[in-house]
Design a protein that fits this description.
By secondary structure, this protein is mainly alpha-helical. The chain has helices at about 5-10, 15-20, 25-40, 50-65, 65-75, 85-95, 110-115, 115-130, 135-145, 150-175, 235-240, 250-255, 260-275, 280-295, 300-310, 315-325, 335-345, 355-365, 370-390; strands at about 220-225, 390-395. GO terms for molecular function: peroxiredoxin activity.
């Protein structure tokens, strides 16, 4: 099948950037496998193709990603009631906003036009696109109350989060190719405070010791949506974990509800961060991941990847300053500041990464292979952060409590 990222980036097979993507073959192949697992699975179950294409069209529209919106809307036209594409377009126009932010409330969608189940999915998609840090267990209960099973909830949140990755890679590749990528003017949708009630299928933790700041040490994580019990993991689910020890981790047992998506996502991750054949240093890939996580407000991911950046040779003082002061911190090094600024631009929604960021990255020594590694690392954590934030929450382990 045609590689969707190259297709929507208008990169032919002989384009230099397409060839450079081939230097990370598992990332290339499994980003495509993620598309197929989440948008065109062999067995879509109760999460229909039409719902998947509708969500993808909506998310692409919120990002202002014109090529992707057209692509997904054409898939939707082939597999939806005649009135649905118009309802999706109306939802996009009503939902245009900026992110990440924590003060805009929630945007609720027209159940009469979309149907109650799809409207609930769009409610959560808007949250994940623009302000994932505001996710609470009530958001997962909102899905459960409107017919989304635990399996479908995992597939839905994987789809939205994958698109946050895919659309950023497409945008970034077009910028690297020298194109002027148009994005919509900033907007701010009107938000409300929804009266979403907790559901019996959702687990909460009233006494959880939650982190009060960003830290450079390990954190725990608790799931709101029920993970698959370890003893009940199927062989396909066990295979999707890639590393057997992940069967002991609630996060991976939860994502194993959609094993094809989890397997493709994990293999994409491993090639982006552990393939050291040229390109950006490991420390700087982890820096990009930390910047995205700090900006999106994901304490868990920021803790893991700040530790790894330092372990791979990054400057501990600079990393700690990023954690303490936030995404605008001066890291005391021209190259690291350029990476930080570009990572922030890639993490904003709509994406603001442009030629000026590429020029600065080139000035501090990044070649084309390193630019793609930076793009991948940042974009991937716009996938990872959203899953961590919407499906559960971080916990301070007992050994780190005051």
């Amino acid at each position: 099948m045609t590689d969707i990222i190259n297709l929507l980036s208008a990169l032919g097979p002989d384009h230099p950037l397409a060839r450079l993507r081939g230097a990370r073959p598992d990332a290339l192949t499994n980003a495509q496998n993620s598309f197929e697992a989440l948008l065109e699975p062999a067995a879509p179950g109760t999460f229909s193709y039409g719902e998947r294409y509708a969500v993808a069209t909506y998310v692409a529209g919120l990002h202002g990603a014109a090529n992707a919106r057209t692509f997904y809307s054409e898939l939707l036209l082939d597999d939806a009631p005649a009135t649905l594409p118009q309802a999706v377009d109306a939802a996009i126009e009503a939902g245009r906003s900026t992110g990440p932010y924590w003060d805009g409330g929630f945007v609720l969608h027209d159940a009469d036009a979309l149907g109650e189940r799809l409207a609930a999915a769009f409610d959560i998609a808007h949250l994940l696109v623009f302000h994932p840090r505001d996710a609470r267990p009530e958001a997962m209960a909102h899905l459960a109350a409107h017919g989304w099973s635990a399996d479908d909830t995992v597939s839905l949140t994987q789809l939205i989060s994958f698109l946050a990755f895919q659309l950023r890679v497409i945008h970034g590749l077009q910028v690297l190719a020298g194109r002027d990528v148009a994005v919509p003017a900033p907007a701010r949708a009107s938000g409300v405070t929804p009266d979403w009630q907790l559901h019996d299928d959702i687990t909460t933790y009233p006494d959880l010791d939650r982190p009060s700041r960003f830290v450079r040490h390990s954190l725990g994580w608790k799931a709101w949506v029920a993970p698959v019990p370890k003893a009940e993991l199927t062989q396909a689910q066990l295979d999707s974990l890639i590393r057997p020890e992940r069967a002991d981790m609630a996060y991976f047992r939860l994502l194993a509800r959609d094993p094809d998506a989890l397997k493709a996502r994990t293999l994409t991750d491993l090639d982006i961060f552990y393939n050291t054949d040229g390109g950006l240093s490991r420390a700087e890939r982890e820096l990009a991941a930390t910047v995205a996580s700090r900006y999106n407000g994901c304490e868990y991911c920021a803790s893991v990847h700040s530790v790894r950046s330092v372990e791979e040779g990054g400057d501990a003082e600079s990393v700690d300053k990023l954690l303490d002061e936030g995404h605008a911190a001066d890291l005391g090094d021209e190259r690291w500041n350029a990476i930080r600024e570009a990572s922030v631009a890639l993490t904003t929604t709509p994406v603001s990464y442009g030629a000026e960021h590429v020029a600065k990255l080139r000035e501090v020594g990044l070649d084309d292979a390193s630019l793609i590694d930076h793009l991948y690392a940042t974009a991937f954590f716009n996938w990872a952060n959203r899953l961590m934030l919407v499906l559960g929450e971080a916990e301070v382990p007992a050994r780190f409590r005051d």
